[in-house]
Design a protein that fits this description.
The protein has about 90 residues and is α+β, with helices and mostly antiparallel strands. The chain contains 2 helices and 4 strands. The protein has a 4-stranded mixed beta sheet, with helices on both faces.
Length: about 90
């Protein structure tokens, strides 16, 4: 299974990343992309668990975590802004 993105998904990924920059994150903020398909029905708790268990990262670290579906035409972003978790979908 290829982990590559088609042109449309790559364009959406760029749009999501541009949205992330609107939030004003500093240069120390990392962006993690989960490899493989993610069930897009997952909400806060499900994505939190994937970050913790599959990516082995701290979901409340302030870093940005991106997930895509099997067809690679949908993206979800999870991030902690210091006061709560954000889930953004495109």
């Amino acid at each position: 299974m290829s982990a590559g993105f088609d042109a449309t998904t790559l364009q959406r990924l760029v749009q999501v990343l541009e949205t992330v920059w609107v939030f004003g994150f500093g240069p120390a903020t990392r962006i993690y992309v989960a490899v493989g398909a993610t069930d897009m029905r997952k909400g806060f708790e499900g994505l939190y668990g994937l970050v913790r268990d599959r990516l082995q990262c701290a979901p409340l670290s302030g870093h940005v975590f991106l997930f895509c579906n099997a067809q690679r035409n949908r993206l979800k972003l999870l991030l902690w802004d210091g006061s709560g978790l954000w889930v953004c979908a495109n």
